[in-house]
Design a protein that fits this description.
alpha+beta, 5-stranded mixed β-sheet, 3-stranded antiparallel β-sheet
């Protein structure tokens, strides 16, 4: 089931899906309106003669002008998109290219212009005016005029969107929104404010016998694991499956991805290679995606901050925007109940062992590179300390105090070793004191 969900999401988020859908609908609309013109012919009279074509030649001229202009604008739209992609790659990093390509408006604009072009070509081909047969599709021509007017406004909207889409604050905000939506999808249950949770550190396989190890047949990034399928497979064969890597990690050909354990030492279990196939339970691709990988979005924001803090750019304010949005993401993660590493079936028997995500891992992924690149900038280091104080206030369950305290000490040590002025060290120490006050 998850495999179908992954394929649907991959197709839906691809660059070609929406344009292809619009083009297909344009062709169907042309056929439908030509059928209506043929079945219910309309002869313009009175004021309608101003709007509708009186002969096939005028109708063809209108459709030819619309078709030609649509092709020209489609080329312009494509050129503008390429320029924006180049700017995005140089300023924000290549990871963000797919975010620009997969914007719905860009896809709709390209599909709309190409779709109207094909619509006009079909209607032109159907228009007839000779001695034996005459057919002037007035309704189809009128619809082409309406589409042309709509596309003029669409072009204005597209240019406005493109000019806004290369602003760092908008890009970062869109990434944050997408990460938070992904968090809500993967971890729908929030931590109750009056409940103290503890992370599970138990090794569920320490007392079990490993009977098999499954290796991958190709290299790439792990896209997802179908946990429901793995639980069913483990229950069917009375084994325990341990997943060795998380989604988003790179795996090399012939590297193990699963360890299979039997449930007791008294057994001598044998697994049939054909019957116990787990190839459908995971997917490997050439690049990372947001699917089951929260850190991928975090890394994209961090890459923007790293670019902003590089000596060639030196834009700490963009890095500050990144820190603010990462703080929002971490405030959401600090309230999330990350499930236990052991997945059980309906009989409450452990079947699958996964590698737990951890708040500490998310915290390091969000702030480590920014701290390292910005260690000589008191403005950035002090901002990180303030961000940790904000996150601490959201940790009402007090589950992650140790992780936050440990990282605050690292930030404080970074400032002491990197700052040149005592004034800057005093400012950082003041923020660190506020942080420690929040703990007590």
């Amino acid at each position: 089931m998850l495999n179908l969900e992954y394929l649907f999401k991959k197709v839906r988020d691809s660059f070609w899906f929406v344009p292809t859908l619009i083009i297909f609908m344009s062709i169907l609309m042309a056929i439908f309106l030509l059928y209506m013109d043929k079945t219910y012919p309309f002869t313009p009279e009175g004021i309608f003669k101003i709007i509708f074509s009186e002969n096939s030649e005028s109708g063809r001229n209108v459709l030819t002008v619309i078709a030609g202009s649509m092709v020209g604008i489609a080329g312009t739209v494509f050129s503008i998109t390429i320029v924006v992609l180049q700017l995005a790659s140089s300023q924000f990093g290549p990871r963000l290219l797919q975010n620009f390509m997969y914007k719905r408006l860009n896809q709709v604009v390209l599909g709309q212009y190409v779709g109207v072009f094909l619509y006009c070509i079909i209607v032109i081909n159907a228009t007839r005016d000779n001695d034996s047969y005459a057919f002037i599709p007035n309704l189809s021509i009128l619809f082409a005029l309406l589409l042309a007017i709509f596309n003029v406004f669409l072009l204005v909207i597209f240019i406005h969107s493109i000019s806004m889409s290369i602003q760092p604050s908008k890009i970062i905000n869109e990434l944050r929104t997408r990460i938070e939506n992904n968090i809500e999808t993967m971890y729908p249950q929030q931590v109750e404010k009056d409940v103290v949770l503890s992370e599970s550190k138990e090794d569920h396989t320490s007392s079990l016998r490993k009977i098999k190890q499954i290796k991958v047949k190709s290299s790439g990034y792990i896209q997802y694991f179908d946990l429901d399928l793995l639980v069913r497979k483990a229950r069917e064969h009375e084994v325990i499956i341990k997943i060795l890597l998380k989604p988003g990690k790179y795996i090399v050909k012939e590297q193990p991805v699963f360890d299979i354990f039997q449930q007791s030492y008294s057994e001598d279990k044998q697994l049939d290679e054909d019957d116990f196939s787990l190839e459908e339970s995971f997917k490997i691709a050439n690049q990372k995606t947001f699917f089951q990988d929260i850190e991928f979005g975090i890394h994209q924001i961090v890459e923007i901050a790293s670019k902003a803090l590089s000596p060639g750019v030196n834009n700490p304010y963009t890095a500050t925007v990144c820190i603010n949005n990462l703080t929002s993401v971490l405030c959401k993660l600090v309230c999330i109940d990350i499930p236990d590493a052991a997945l059980k079936d309906d009989e409450d028997t452990t079947r699958v062992i996964v590698i737990n995500d951890s708040f500490e891992g998310f915290l390091e992924a969000a702030f480590n590179l920014i701290r390292q690149y910005g260690k000589t900038s008191p403005f950035i280091i002090i901002k990180l300390m303030e961000a940790l104080t904000v996150i601490l206030e959201f940790d009402t369950s007090q589950k992650h105090i140790n992780a936050l305290k440990k990282y605050a000490e690292i930030v404080m040590q970074t400032g002491k070793e990197s700052f040149l002025l005592e004034t800057d060290i005093a400012d950082l120490t003041h923020r660190y004191t506020i942080f420690k006050t929040k703990i007590s």
